[in-house]
Amino acid sequence: MSHACLNHDLISVLADVDVLVVGAGSAGCCAAIAAAEALGPGRVALIERYGYPGGTSTQILDTFYGFFTPGDQPRKVVGGIPDRVVDALDATGDQFLRPNTYGAGTGVNYNPERLKLVWDRLLAEAGVNVYLHTNLVDVESDGQGRLVAAVIWTKRGFFRVRAQRMIDASGDADLCHAGNIPYEKAGDLDPAQTLTTTFRMSNVDLNAYEAAGGKTMLMQAMDSAMLDGSHPLPRKAGSAHAMVQEGCIATVAVRVADMDATDFEQLGQAEREGRRQAFIYEAFFRDRIAGYTHAKIIGLSHHIGVRETRRVYGEYRLTRDDCLEARQFDDAVLLCGAPIEDHRDSGGKGEETRWAYVKDHLAYGVPYGTLVPKGRDELWVVGRCFSATHDAHASCRSMGQTMSMGQAAGIAAAVSIQQGCGARDVDIFGLRNRLQEIGAVLELPDTIAQTAADAWATNRD
What range defines the domain where residue 410 resides? Predict the structure, then answer.
């Protein structure tokens, strides 16, 4: 909600730009890069509350999913700026392809510390004005209700950033929330997905782990530990995978349920619970899993991983049937072949993650309208606050797709500026052409992708 106590006229203007992007996650970075490369240096601003870009890609995870469709005949369905990100990681030996044995398709595993530097470099080369350690606190509207500026807070005090167009890549739809733009909140209609603190362990003997049965052995040990009560694990499933760094693993195992991640008190409680669970897992791994006897946690995610909070109502809303039936749309600006992956609290009974797969391992199109808040001409939403139902969101939230959303919205915002039209009037044919010119994939390729660990460059030929 807008803060009536702030007198915007008394707040200095830090920058006056064509496009402002709020949130420097994978979606926001790609949006800012795309817009700046289309408009020119100095015309795009990107604000971020933390001290480095990347969001979930650098704070929580180490794998991009969504680049490849699942199945035994995978297709590469993401391209453009996301390819350049992985190319930069590949150039320094900081990525490899790894299978997802749960059915989400091949992932691009990377070094998140190197990725911070990659995002820095790509943003700088594009000429984006990047403001780190910057918090969005309010928005300013004109007499017609159009958003014209963001009010930010820094250690130097309050500032305004004026912009003709804005892109909400905040994850929690903070810009839209401040501007009173309608959204569905996770948990209102369907149970919200659980939260996860990821952690990393070093000194793991992966050869011993694989020789003892690998994932199958791990799942059996987790199930056994829950049954015999030896380790109070929060769930009987989870993943531990090798990292780029030798002898290290990363996990998606912690599960925190029934928390509203937009409420600071509940979020703080979730953070504490996530840390508690992480060290329960450390003890379990050391005690019960081959290869982990001398392993220790060397890092927790920068903050707990949040899968969904606010989802803005757009000009179009992606649905479960759109995903599972592999529907195509004339205004599609990206593809997705990822299954619905719905992490819910099972209370220790039944399925902990509900899966549903796209028909015939194909890919569906994601309409441009899912990126445009309903009735708005100056604003786009990208990343996990885009317009989708709970189920559709659980399919289309992979970082391959959020990066693709970002580049689509970034180019659309630039076109909107260049042609003097609103978000809803952007020429879709022209937008799709510009996306394809930079390498975006808008039609399912005929070529089967190569997914061996070292095969990334093969798919770039």
Answer: 8-55+114-189+309-436
